[in-house]
Predict the 3D structure of the following.
Amino acid sequence: MKPVEFPPRFHALLTAEGIFDGTTGILKGCFVTDAFDQKSKLLKIFPKFPEERIIVASNGVNQRLFTPTDDTLNSLITEQIPADADVHPAAGSAEHAAIAKCARAVVFCGKFANWKRLDALLYAAAAYEKTHDDVATIIIGSGPPDDVVKYREMATTLGLTRTLFTGPQPQPLLAKFFAAANVCVFPSYAEPFGMVFIEA
């Protein structure tokens, strides 16, 4: 595993400052949520950091919040998402209304990053929109501005008409979308068993 596989934005600074070298005393410990993925990668990227100072604290989910509800896709779209939200191919009330009328929903939640494979979902949506006119695709989340533009433009290029980008949403509303969904998708090619999977 090489640092170049990760965004290198802060790697040079962290290395120069000796944050993870284990001898400066700057960093006393580090919490990770996964031993296999996060802990092992941390040790490969910063091999001087003492392994005994890495504490694995597993993910947890608030089951009082993430629980089945009676919310419907229609009520969530019409009451929670503004009519001028980013619907493709063009934002507008007609597309918003069409999505609200859909009987079924495919929901994605995550950061807009290549390894999350949002592009795979958009290609799939282009296929099932042609054959299933009652299915909406709800994309919750965001990412770096360039990636946001990339995926929104991709949705436009693919001609998606029942795909809604909601942006980031608070956990109570996210829980309602998961409960209203027929399918939640996680097409990541690498995932340390993230919180979204558990919550859905």
Observations:
- The longest strand covers residues 104-109.
- The chain is about 40% helix and 15% strand.
- Residues 3-56 form one domain.
